[in-house]
Design a protein that fits this description.
The complex is a heterodimer of chains A (about 550) and B (about 700). A seven-stranded antiparallel sheet of chain A has the order 2-1-5-4-3-6-7, sandwiched between helices. Chain A has a five-stranded antiparallel sheet with strand order 14-15-20-17-18, covered by helices on one side. Chain A has a four-stranded mixed sheet with strand order 8-9-10-11, with helices on one face. Chain A starts with a helix and ends with a helix. By secondary structure, chain A is an alpha+beta fold. Chain B is α/β, with parallel strands linked by helices and about 700 residues long. The longest helix of chain B is centred in the N-terminal third of the chain and has 31 residues. Chain B is globular. The N terminus of chain B is likely disordered. The chains are: A alpha+beta (about 550), B alpha/beta (about 700). Chains A and B meet through helix 1, helix 5, helix 6, helix 7 and helix 10 of A and helix 3, helix 7 and helix 11 of B.
Chain lengths: ~550, ~700
């Protein structure tokens, strides 16, 4: 069937609207602040045949950009193979198994078919980051886990809702294995309600334009998105572009993990080859294949933000399966660090490889860490236990159009950090500073943005501090002659003495008492271009504003 | 926190003593917009209305204000009230033309205003810039510290404070912000620092962080205070100058200024809380819509204000505009004071249509703005826009093209649609223009829908209130797309903001934070909070020296289920709710919004809110169109006909709005023109005129 281009555009916005409404509905109704405030969730529409992405909400967490098409595809295949019970109308699957197309266990996915005349027209799916799914430590980020069982409850695809009703037996099993289970019912209902909202909106679209027209439009939009991505890629001169990026350690063995990337452009598409990267690691810095793919996709989307997200846009991108490396982890490798940290190093490798080919589109490397600092303790008067999370940003890389911004969000996220006042209301801590980290921006014609410098004191009782950060060994990479940004620094002051964790940016359960302090300096962004060519007025302004000392400015900018 | 001298709880709801003056007079509402300064003059005794539209004078807005009075031949000396809407502060913030402002803050925290909340400008793309309101060398720290529970951890170092103040003064700062951590919990240090500052600061431009909003979140509170301080001298100078000019003309009353909450305050005090005037222009338009809708018996409205560069949408329930305390006026620029919740949704008449790399026709987000503007402006624009599509399709009068100096011909516009869009899409120029409108309509309908559902409502339960220069051109098509049954087109869509100034109420909003599980709340204390808020509001209105016809008190709470972060606002029927009533009302509102029941989880009472509103004397809107100019029959009001494209060219009658008979009923297709706007009735639409001169369009079914 032939479609007029106007109907095509209208259906394109209609599909986007369905996803945006699911995103909005999910966030507004969710209980977990990770979903409601930090928008650590995503919603999308997937094809009935293979789960390929049709449309995804524009306010979804970037790292989920390619994950759900993988997990939905796996689910469809397992149903076809008889490994998972086939759905009936009103059924919703729940799954969080990382190896079946996921991230870490805390990202819980729901998937529901949309039925038309007794057949599945497409799937709706969403992911929400649950605050806890069991495991060794509250929140799931165990820096020293060596197997997935230590990270939490792993759910294969099962029908949590049957015929529109929550299955109380499956739900009881889940609740018995996770912390703060009493509030999860709110998130479960919100996550399902978002799918129902999507179903209702999509049904209206199908009723209005007809199933065949919408199906034809989806196919046409897919091939046009592929064309659009190809048109962008055609700007990259043919050749192979290489880069390397490092993760400080896996949290267990104190050796850097290496990501080696070779991107080959042939004028039509890009091939991403991670051959030569480090083998699977003992600690939780492994990535599962879906996350690795998604990280490449999100990096490309950062470079070309105008290309709509759909399976078509990914078609010209070929990622060779990085078998035998830590970027294709198999059961039972621990994976809690993949979504928050490894994904950002993969994106950094993509940026670093392509900045030379696309100097007007790609920035020097951003801080690229979620900066997770978790503090678990007890309030002595009440005996109540708490877990505090401080996430933090860092400097972005300089780019052709200007300096990198300071304290930017993680590459894979869009969530805001909590205010100091809220942290001090909720937890027995005192912040002594929350400041711009002077001198941290990598020098360049366009310098990197500055990191954050904060210091927290434990006011009462005892607590245990854990860190999952990165860039402690090597700063975010400068580009085209720019310098690297400053490395991440963690300093613990215990009993009046300062020390740095052995793994620099990762540590688990450091015991602290009232009066002890933790100071974190997050990375600055990489510089872009030769620092000696930087506009002198801008160098002087940075000195006047105290961002660099006079000596630093002389040393860095000549 | 409760005071001893609190009046008894049953004080709520009683009407204040009325003045014995008659509630009549001569009022002028003057709104300064981006392009035009509009005036509405209303004489309630003589039932005379005068209107004026003059160019805005950007360098000094008061010139345009005086010019508007002149053009309308309004004698300022004879006026009983002037209400003024100004974009002085809005423009200053958006263009960063701010006064040099210094910050004194808690040791260790001067960079909060630069670091923000760890964000980036766009979800995708690792680039973009952010400039803090106050530069780093004008942000100084002093030792002092409160804890979250309001206890003092470090005393205020007054010597360090004096040194910091001297440094900022010597650096030439005109305004000052004192912003300390946890000052919302205990403002003692900020208050003491303010006392010291007043001794040494050369002027009164001092903003204390806790004074505008007493809520936690140091970035948002700090930015709000910094915006306030850095526009305060500008606004103060501007309103003083304007008041002087008006008094030279013999105006003896208070000049009132519109606030972003849709209420108005005296020019004598408006600069104290200057941040509240940011967004006042859009707010006054929404107030006029609420007023018009209430009189028309259509109290539930979605306002649709489409101009040249953008479109604003707001929701009105029960003639009461939705208010938000958390508006972000641009990236990382939150202003947390109560403001009418007006959302800017992008497309305007100048939005550009292009064929993208995938061969799809897209409308926006780029805009031709006002310079060069659409092709039809004749100022050098070459890319087809929404306005140009209206011209090609005959929805706007192509005959008017000749009346603009240097204007382009219709053929030129058609050629642009052909070469830039039609050729790539396989369409002729007319089809391409129709396609642009179809896509623009779908996108704008989606945007309106998103605003509506994000506020928890189905748009089909509302009527669309169309105003702004381009609102009535598109409103019927958008309503049809949305399934909205009715469109209300007011008598004077092009001067709605100025009308808002005339009809606006006096208004004061209060928020107090409780943040406790509902079953643990002391309900007596909750009732006492309401009483205190009501008393404060009444006292504030009493100080305004403006006649009011009626006092209205609106009380509400914000609640959530424990563990949740988003708040749900629950309006209350009285200021003395019982615990059980709050629980029931909240559950009802929650189910209505999310279709979810959560009996498993306890509810929490977070905020207690009161708005004290002094309603102004009723204004007879029917005077907006001079009755003596109306014709007896539709036929006489008809000025002609022209071909208009509605899926096919139809010869469509054109009417002059001011000539429509009082009881006119019009069936689409039809065009209704007036001084500054054009209404398009599509085939199937039927418009009837009500007693106030509004056209109420019943939207026909989707074709």
């Amino acid at each position: 069937m032939t479609l007029d281009p106007i109907t095509l555009t209208v259906i394109q916005s209609g599909l986007q609207q369905v996803c945006d409404e699911m995103d909005l509905s999910f966030s507004r109704a969710a209980f977990s602040p990770v979903i409601a405030e930090a928008n650590d969730r995503s919603d999308g529409i997937y094809s009935a045949e293979d789960g390929s992405l049709i449309a995804q909400g524009s306010q979804g967490l970037p790292v989920f950009v390619g994950v759900m098409q993988y997990s939905t595809g796996t689910l469809i295949r397992m149903i076809a193979e008889g490994k998972v019970i086939a759905p009936k109308p009103g059924d919703i699957y729940i799954v969080n198994d990382p190896y079946l197309g996921g991230t870490h266990l805390m990202d819980v996915r729901f998937a529901m078919p949309v039925w038309r005349n007794g057949e599945i027209f497409c799937w709706l799916s969403n992911t929400g980051h649950w605050p806890d799914t069991g495991g060794a430590v509250p929140g799931g980020f165990s820096a020293s886990a060596t197997a997935v069982e230590q990270e939490g409850l792993r759910l294969p695809p099962v029908r949590l809702f049957k015929n529109g009703e929550l299955d109380p037996e499956i739900y009881a099993i889940i609740c018995s294995n996770i912390r703060v289970a009493d509030q999860r019912i709110g998130d479960v209902k919100a996550q399902a309600a978002a799918l129902y909202v999507g179903e209702a909106r999509l049904t209206r679209l199908l009723d209005r334009y007809g199933d065949d027209t919408v199906r034809a439009a989806i196919g046409e939009l897919r091939s046009r998105a592929a064309e659009q991505m190809r048109a962008q890629i055609a700007r990259i001169p043919p050749g192979t572009y290489r880069s390397t990026a490092y993760i400080d350690s896996d949290g267990v063995v104190n050796e850097p993990l290496e990501i080696r990337l070779a991107v080959t452009a042939d004028g039509e598409g890009l091939t991403f080859d991670f051959a030569g990267s480090s083998p699977p690691c003992q600690g939780p810095m492994n990535s599962v294949i879906a996350t690795t793919l998604s990280s490449v996709y999100l990096a490309m989307r950062h470079i070309f933000p105008d290309v709509p997200i759909s399976a078509g846009a990914f078609e010209p991108l070929t990622v060779k399966r990085p078998e035998g490396t830590f970027l294709d982890a198999q059961y039972p490798r621990p994976v809690s660090g993949c979504a928050a940290e490894v994904s950002q190093r993969i994106a950094e490798a993509v940026f670093a490889a392509l900045v030379e080919a696309l100097p007007d589109k790609v920035s020097a490397s951003p801080a690229g860490s979620s900066g997770n600092f978790a503090l678990g303790g007890e309030v002595p008067e009440t005996g109540q236990s708490y877990v505090m999370y401080q996430i933090s940003g860092g400097g972005y890389g300089g780019y052709a159009g200007g300096d990198g911004i300071s304290n930017g969000c993680s590459t894979i996220g869009i969530s805001k950090a909590p205010p100091v006042e809220i942290m001090e209301q909720q937890f027995p801590v005192l912040y002594h500073r929350y400041a711009l980290r002077e001198g941290s921006g990598g020098a360049g014609a366009q310098r990197g943005g500055f990191g954050l410098d904060y210091e927290v004191e434990i006011l009462k009782g005892q607590a245990r501090a854990s860190f999952v950060m990165d860039h402690g060994r090597f700063g975010p990479q400068g580009a085209l002659g720019g310098s690297d940004g400053a490395v991440n620094e963690v300093t613990v002051t215990r009993g009046g003495e300062n020390f740095t964790p052995e793994h620099l940016s990762k540590a688990q359960d450091i015991s602290l008492v009232a009066g002890d302090r933790v100071r974190v300096k997050t990375p600055g962004g990489g510089g872009y271009g030769d620092p000696t060519t930087r506009d002198r007025a801008l160098v002087e302004e940075d000195v006047r504003l105290g961002r660099y000392s006079v000596e630093e400015a002389k040393r860095l900018f000549g | 926190m409760m005071r001893d001298d609190m009046p008894p709880a049953d004080a709520a709801g009683k009407a204040p003593e009325m003045t014995d003056k008659t509630l009549t007079g001569r009022f002028a509402g003057i709104d300064v917009g981006g392009t035009f300064t509009d005036l509405v003059f209303y004489d309630s005794k003589a039932r005379v209305v005068k209107l004026a539209k003059v160019p805005t004078t950007l360098d000094n807005q008061s010139k345009g204000v005086l010019a508007a009075l002149d053009v309308a031949s309004v004698n300022a000396a004879a006026l009983d009230l002037i209400v003024h809407g100004t974009t002085t502060t809005t423009n200053a913030v958006l263009e960063r033309r701010l006064c040099k402002t210094g910050l004194v803050t808690t040791l260790g925290f001067r960079d909060v205003l630069e670091l923000g909340r760890r964000t980036r400008p766009h979800a995708y793309g690792m680039t973009g810039q952010f400039r803090p309101i106050i530069p780093r060398d004008l942000r100084l720290e002093v030792p002092e510290r409160m804890l979250a529970d309001g206890s003092e951890y470090t005393a205020l170092d007054e010597d360090a404070l004096r040194a910091a103040l001297a440094e900022l003064r010597d650096k030439g700062c005109e305004a000052l912000v004192i912003h300390f951590l946890h000052a919302y919990a205990n403002p003692a240090h900020e208050i003491r620092a303010g006392e010291i500052a007043r001794e040494v600061w050369p002027n009164g431009n001092i903003t204390l962080g806790h004074a505008l909003i007493s809520e936690s979140r140091e970035y948002e509170r700090g930015v709000t205070a910094a915006v306030n301080a850095s526009v305060q001298p500008l606004l103060r100078r501007y309103v003083e100058r304007l008041a002087d000019r008006l008094s030279e003309r013999g105006y003896e009353r208070d000049l009132l200024v519109m606030n972003g909450n849709g209420g108005m305050v005296s020019a004598r005090v408006v600069a104290e809380e200057a941040a509240k005037t940011v967004m006042s222009g859009p707010a006054s338009g929404v107030m006029a819509a609420a007023y018009t809708g209430r009189r028309a018996g259509i109290p539930d409205l979605l306002t649709y204000d489409m101009g040249g560069t953008s479109t604003d949408v707001a929701m009105i329930r029960g003639a009461d505009p939705a208010v938000s305390h958390e508006i972000e006026i641009e990236y990382a620029m939150p202003i947390h004071v109560p403001m009418v919740d007006v959302r800017t949704v992008g497309a305007g008449g100048g939005s550009i249509a292009r064929v993208d790399a995938a061969g799809l026709l897209q409308v926006g987000p780029d805009s031709a703005g006002s310079e060069p503007g659409p092709i039809c402006y004749g100022k050098g624009g070459v890319e087809p826009t929404i306005s140009d599509a209206n011209m090609v399709l005959g929805r706007m009068d192509p005959g008017k093209l000749n009346t603009i100096s240097g204007a382009v011909s219709l053929a030129t516009i058609r050629a642009a649609f052909q070469s830039r869009l039609g050729d790539a899409l396989g369409l002729d120029a007319t089809e391409a223009a129709a396609a642009v409108l179809r896509i623009a309509t779908a996108k704008m309908a989606d945007a309106v829908r998103m605003v509506s559902i994000s506020l928890g409502e189905d748009p089909r339960d509302f009527a669309l209130f169309a105003f702004g220069g381009a609102g009535p051109l598109h409103a019927c098509a958008i309503a049809r797309e949305l399934g909205v049954p009715r469109v209300l087109v007011p008598a004077r869509p092009g001067i709605t903001n100025a009308l808002g100034c005339v009809v606006a109420d006096l208004r004061h909003d209060y928020v107090a934070t409780v943040n406790q599980p509902l079953d643990a709340c002391d309900m007596d204390e909750v009732h006492a909070l309401f009483v205190r808020q009501i008393e404060e509001g009444r006292a504030a209105i009493g100080r305004e020296r403006v006649e009011i016809a009626e006092e209205k008190i609106a009380v509400s709470v914000e609640m959530r289920f424990i563990g949740q972060t988003h708040l749900l606002r629950v309006p209350l029927p009285s200021a003395t709710p019982t615990r059980e009533e709050l629980q029931a009302l909240f559950e009802e509102a929650y189910f209505r919004r999310f279709q979810v029941k959560l009996p498993e989880i306890r509810a929490a009472l977070v905020n207690v809110n009161t708005s004290v509103i002094g309603r102004r004397p009723e204004i007879d809107l029917s005077a907006l169109i001079d009755a003596s100019g109306r014709k007896a029959t539709l036929q006489e009001a008809r000025t002609g006909a022209r071909p208009v494209f509605f899926e096919a060219w139809i010869d469509t009658p054109v009417y002059w709005r001011d000539h429509l008979p009082a009881d006119a009923t019009l069936a689409g297709p039809a065009i209704v023109e007036q001084m500054d706007c054009t209404l398009v009735l599509e085939p199937g639409d039927v418009a009837t005129q009500d007693a106030d001169g509004n056209l109420i369009v019943t939207v026909g079914p989707r074709r």
